[in-house]
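Q: What residues go here?
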């Protein structure tokens, strides 16, 4: 057997063994990773609608709402909607949004909205913006709260009723568009099927 053939067989055997080991590691870690992801989402839901005791998945975004949001100037999508309930019944919604166009890519967040359409809270669940700049959307204690408790039907605009994060315009615009998309969904559902 020539040296080249032996080396090729050896490298193939190593590749197979390492492939099997990586597959095994994936199988072992997939469950705990998924469980942690679910735990993080439940914590986000509780943070945005603190009075809720249960969250019921309402299924896919209604076709008309999804199309209207896609046609709007939101550059975002609603990935899921949950009804927030407590012992008194339904108290609002959790809307999961993925907004496109951040400086570092998509920004995902959960937003809690009460039965009247006002924002109760926002929790960023996925972000890869610049540390010290765009990441402040997640860490600045004053930035996200400027969206909370506004009159139902409010459309947020940077520089008008939302202050931009200094040196992070892409991030600010991305989150603001996503919030508007979430509110447009709520308006669609509560307003009888029309995106405003």
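A:
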């Amino acid at each position: 057997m020539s040296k080249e053939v032996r080396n090729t067989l050896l490298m193939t055997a190593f590749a197979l063994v390492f492939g099997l080991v990586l597959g095994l590691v994936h199988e072992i870690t997939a469950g705990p990773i998924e469980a942690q992801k679910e735990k993080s989402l439940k914590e986000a839901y509780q943070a945005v609608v603190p009075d809720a005791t249960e969250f019921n998945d309402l299924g896919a975004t209604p076709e008309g709402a999804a199309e209207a949001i896609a046609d709007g100037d939101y550059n975002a999508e609603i990935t899921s909607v949950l009804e927030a309930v407590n012992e008194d019944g339904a108290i609002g919604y959790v809307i999961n949004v993925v907004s496109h166009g951040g400086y570092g890519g998509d920004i995902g967040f959960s937003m809690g909205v009460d039965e009247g359409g006002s924002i109760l809270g926002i929790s960023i669940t996925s972000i890869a913006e610049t540390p010290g700049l765009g990441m402040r959307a997640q860490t600045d204690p004053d930035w996200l709260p400027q969206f909370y408790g506004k009159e139902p039907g409010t459309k947020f605009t940077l520089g008008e009723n939302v202050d931009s994060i200094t040196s992070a315009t892409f991030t600010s615009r991305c989150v603001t568009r996503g919030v508007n998309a979430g509110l447009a969904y709520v308006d669609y559902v509560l307003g009888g099927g029309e995106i405003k």
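A: Context that may help when evaluating the design: The CA atoms of residues 37 and 125 lie 10 Å apart. The chain is about 40% helix and 25% strand.
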